[in-house]
Batch of 2 targets.
Target 1
Amino acid sequence: MKRLTILFLVVLSVSVVEAQHISIKKDTIQTTKDTLVLSIKNNMLSPMFFRLKVKNEEANSFKYFEKIVLQPLEKKENYMKIPRRKIDTTQGLKLSGYFDFIVGYGDPSVASHDDSYVYLLPYKKKRKLVQGNFGRFSHDHIRSYHAYDFGTKIGDTIYAAREGKVVLIKEDSNKHGRTRKFANDGNFIIIQHNDGTTASYYHLDFKGALVENGDIVTRGQKIGISGMTGFTTTPHLHFVVHKATEEDGNISVPIQFEGYEGKKLKKGKKYARRKK
Ligand SMILES: [Zn+2]
């Protein structure tokens, strides 16, 4: 019983960090008399970069891989060995108390964004840009500086802005809220491009994915239904392109849209598809 509690608490504290992308679950934990051995599994169909930065020097008594690139669905055995004396029998083990987790969708050694690529606006009708690049509400981090929040309505069709492979989908949430604790409740589709970068389409509707994991999609293909799930105060589509880097994990990259090449999209203005 005590052992089960420990396992559960390890799972809980890790899944808060990166619930859908990486898992450390009961079947990936082994215990010996004095050591807890964790394996790690990449749940995405793209490679995934994972780095740990020590924030509490007690972590130096753990044995682990500091940097690792996991191939699609790859499981790494013996990823981390933790002395059992570090595990509080009532509190369990919060890995986030020992490490910062740096995560990137893709392999930093090959990902390189094609800056000449012109993206399609991922919706059709005129919609307002409710938050632009470097927006203070939530585009205030290296992962989100170059993100766009388009004020799409619940039920709007979302289209692939660029061709690629669907590498991860979440569509089982019907929750939203005004604080970051709802961040893991957003439905999304992640598509990997041929330059190793990925596009994320966030806040989709419950059961709002029109594609499946592993699908190859073309530019302009219908992929989802817009919604209002996750950390949001209004229905919208959060769209961002990420590149995996060794230093910071996912960083957002600047992109341009067809019909608006070289122009900066402005908060509060409406934008629709147009040809140049
Ligand atoms: Zn956003």
Target 2
Amino acid sequence: MAISTDCSTIPYDWYFDPAVARLEQERIFRRTWQYAAHTGELSEPGSFVSTRAGNVPVVIVRGRDNELRAFVNVCRHRGYLLCDGAGKRETLQCPYHAWTYDLDGSLRSAPRSELEPGFDRENLGLVPMLVDTWGPFVFVNPDTTAGTLAEHLGDLPRIVAEGGVDVDALAFYQRFEVEYDANWKVCVENYLECYHCAIAHPSFSKAIDVAPGTYALEEYPTFSTQFGPPKNGGGGIYDATGEIDRGQFHLLFPGTTLNVMPGRGNFSIGPVIPVGNERTYRFLDYFFLPDTDPQWIADYLELDTQVGGEDRVLVERVQVGMRSGIVTAGTLMPESERLIGHFERLLVDALGADG
Ligand code: FES
Ligand SMILES: [Fe+2]
């Protein structure tokens, strides 16, 4: 027995089926631009940072020539994860058997390789991927044949600039990390509607006007946007008055969220990453203008933490509900949840690529 309706979501088993998860890695996460790091971690020649693009471990390195390069963070010998954390290096040496790579990814030396007559050092460099920046934000794409970051971002930098944020003026403040017992799409779809805000996020709804007609939704080829002005001119849980007169919440497909709250110069950005069929890892990098009042930042972060905790309950209970096996899909509200429909169309298109 299958129960579904006209305005159905994608099937619920897509939210836990390992075959779908595998296809998403192959056709989405290995082929798209994703936020991975910020330039503050990569300021000097020799700086490196390990990160990920979906399930692909990534290391981003600033070379001696000052160029940023990104590689699959996997030793070409027998698969050891090459780099951990962030720091500064002269070379990238694998801790397992000491194969040593130059900062440009080429294999410089491998102990005892002179005893192996056929050893093909030239072809054993780290596997490269695309890397590019927008302001302080570093993006990677494992697919070296993909289009440019600028193409993927489309109108997003213009919209952010018009909203009063100069991304080049932002300073990194802190990273927040979290894991959820839910499929990554549950997390993304929860992010994409504010239909739940009035009931599930009372504090957020005191600060932001979430009423239909005021809270605006827009769709673009590679991302979607929610605009939320402050409520009652900015009173409430934190001071929402300042140079930014309305909030912007963007989802860059597949899973990079970009957030601007009304008030002082602020920005947060980070990926939603599947780490299991029913497990999601997120990190969010917070940026502010360098001279922003610390108390304002503290109030803003308190609200964000509160909203995050409320969202955890929502996504984890949805994940359990999706496994009933009897209710096999959800029902979308075509207006209020328009951006979920947009996301699911992008998802289906991407999964269907190559038939
Ligand atoms: S796995 Fe890296 S040197 Fe052996
Ligand atoms: Fe929420």
